[in-house]
Amino acid sequence: MSPLLAPDIPQIERALDGLLDRNAAARVLGMRSPTRRNWPEVIEYRGRRFRLAWCTSELEVRECLDAVDAEGAEGLVVLTPLDATRLGHDVAARLPRGRLEQSDRWAALRAAFRARDVDPRLRAHRWLADVLLERAPAAAYPPPAGGMLDLEAAWRALLEQVLGLPEGRADAAALLSWSLDLAGLVRFASLPDEARQAVANRLADTGGTGAGLVLAAAAAGRGTDALPVGLVCGVIFGEVEPRATLRDAAVRLEPLVGGTRVEPVAGRALADAARRVLARLAASDPAMARAVQLRAAALLTEVRADGEAALSPALDLGLDARMGEAAAALARTATSHSGDDAKRAWDLVQWAAAHDRAEDHRARLDRLLLAARLARWLTLRRPAAPRSMAELATAYAGDSGFADRARHALRAGDALPEVAAAYARLREEATTHREEENRLFAAALRDWNATGALGSNPLPVEKLLETVIAPLAHEVPVLVLVLDGLSFAVWRALADTVARLGWVEFCPRGGTVLSATAAVLPSVTEVSRTSLLCGRLTRGDQSTERVGFAAHPELVAASGARRPPRLFHKADLGPGPELEVLVRDAVADPQQRVVGVVHNAVDAQLAGSDQIELAWSAEGLRQVAALLRVARDAGRVVVVTGDHGHVVEEGTTLTAGGTGDRWRASGVAGEREVALAGGRVLSPEGGQTMVAAWSERIRYAARRGGYHGGASPQEVLIPLAVLGAGQPPPGWDMAPPAEPAWWRGVAEESPAAGLVTSDLPFGAVPSRRRAVDARQPELFAPVPLPVAADSATGSTATTIPSWIAALLASDAYTTQRRLAGRGAPADDHVQALLCALAARGGRLSRAGLAQALSAPVLRVSGLVSAVRRVLNLDQAQVLTTDSEDIVLDERLLRVQFRLGDSR
């Protein structure tokens, strides 16, 4: 095959450039061309007109030259298949330099790239030169570096300029993105057979087997299905040892990729690339992403793999299928109360949460996780009755209050009927458990009230100012944030969002998180909130509260005469979202030691629409986030509490004769009620007897979103949290996480669980640690080691696996500690962390690890970082983080530190 090419207009113009550069008055140019092209009759170039003449004989050439001599004005470009030897000497002499210019592919390629030379290897790829010349862009190719057009630069030009592949990338993900552009597929399909096959082979070699499948689909005319096919591969090749239905589906997939067999390795590579492309597409072009997903769903049905959709890590229907499988396990747990079923449900929920589209359905996945937690709660072993008021309050604050958060969240249901049905079954079963707990609580409440409501667990709400607020105010400025109607279920949701704003919970040094306060009976605003803010059992309105708060002796003593305690109500806060100047200035002034703010959003929502499912957050409570910001800047400690809790409407039955929503002034207690008298009973009318509902299933007033006034722990017990954004005040520490073990999916509570066990008054907890120097705060608090009871003596002894002891005694460990310098953690901290992880199979969430160590999450994160520096010998990933989990690879640790395999 001759390298001679029929010149196109740009090549003719480049030849004219050379001619006119040598002689600006030149009028004739001769060029060889093996064939005639569709040239125009005349071209204008550099202000001159040149007629293009196709001459197949010497005579025609001679006539054209004679004509241009006679006319004199126009120039002439002679285009002829003849070579110089077939032209007479007199004719050749009339041409510039006595010869015909010619355009071979290599000269043309040099000109197209403005290159000095061409890589000799290109001569073995004549098709590549022809395609590059035939499809050269209007703006010409970019010149190669160094002036040499090498083979790689030519390929890059083909991929980028001709086929439109961004940056010439040949990996499967880039090809899948490219396949979404129909124009690119058309350009590929229009290549000559030799070129198309060569391109496919090249991209398969450089981009991997997944890239080869994309090109195979494009070559088969199914290029627009390449991305959906990749997503289908995520199902078909989602198992290492596929079941029969998936093996059959792989065979049915072959026509979509040109009839070739899809190897599992190639299918997984394509699936992985398709996941990444769909993720980018979902963020940049949701409509296109949805169309791709619909097509993938259709192809799944076509290859009969739609029944295995849960294997898809990328498709929405895969997420729905995973949620459906989790729902089935949840429903089984609700019936069986089996720990194995609960674990299976938990694992399936984690599988759903790991799906690529999980963040697009965050609210649904959060509810699914809460359902798994509630299922785990249903499997717990519960202590036999009777139980004291302190035990019941502690259990509700640290256990059942979390269950109520999950139970209430599940009322929102789900768009999938099977998931919604599982939620309803879980809620029904959980409510049955709650009813029994409520009955026990009501009996304990009656006895506790009758015997003087002794102790501080729960703390009577009227003692909060004297016992907690005033001692704190002597040390730091305090903001008392009273969320009217705050239940434990609502607070557990709010607490997560408050933590994201930079606040951590404090607890008395040597103790654990504070438990709860108890509302005045009945649990209504007129008596309970007024008693809280006046510091004594009383009833009244906002004016009573304002006067009582400002005159409280202990608060006044902590405040000083010039800035007595100040209390603000809803009207003082203004419509928001910004704070009124008066409130902002008071909170911002650190000399104003005590500021109280009453926020009514929670209580007000009890009368709200039942068609709205509220997501409780600090940002969602108007002005609360602003209050917290100003308080943080002023260095305040914030005490969050309420005046009473509430129960939510879930199919209650109306009972006649009530004075309030959930209580009546007198009478005989019915089956779901308890009679209370004396003690802390103080009705809004001044009476000291009442009958209150303890069951969630009855009400005495018109139906609305929620109620209070009854004797259930949901209404009587009120959260109490002391929050700070800096160092704890003297006598206080950062609190460990409050979550029970089942909240993290663990069946049993760790020995160091952080529940309130002391009945000592707040502020009187004895210190078991030396005072902390405020100038140099400790990085880590001492952490207890896991302990086990001696079966013979009943005493506890430290349980340390032998490999941990061997690690701490090893030379490699000692060297690692020395290299870490001052950042090395103490040996007992390393030991405690490893014991906690080993007890849970090498994996714990951050909150779970903090719970196991009785340490704040903030400190645990720093401890993990420090231990990682020591244990990750030679950068081996012995201790790693996986999202919110801390993971220990014990096998790798043994290898790195030469501890052997025996345990």
Beta-strand residue fraction: 5-15%
In total, how many domains does the architecture comprise?
5
What is the CA-based Rg, rounded? 40 Å
Number of strand segments: 30
Q: N- to C-terminal separation? A: 75 Å
Largest sheet: 7 strands, mixed
Order of strands across the biggest sheet? Answer: 13-14-10-15-24-11-25
Shape: elongated
Which stretches are low in confidence, meaning pLDDT under 50 for 5 or more residues running?
749-798
CATH architecture of the largest domain: 3-Layer(aba) Sandwich
Structural class: alpha/beta
Number of helices: 35
Domain Alkaline phosphatase-like protein PglZ C-terminal: 801-898
InterPro entries: BREX_PglZ, PglZ_2nd, PglZ_C, PglZ_N
Pfam families: PglZ (PF08665), PglZ_1st (PF25862), PglZ_2nd (PF25861), PglZ_C (PF25863)
Domain Alkaline phosphatase-like protein PglZ second: 171-313
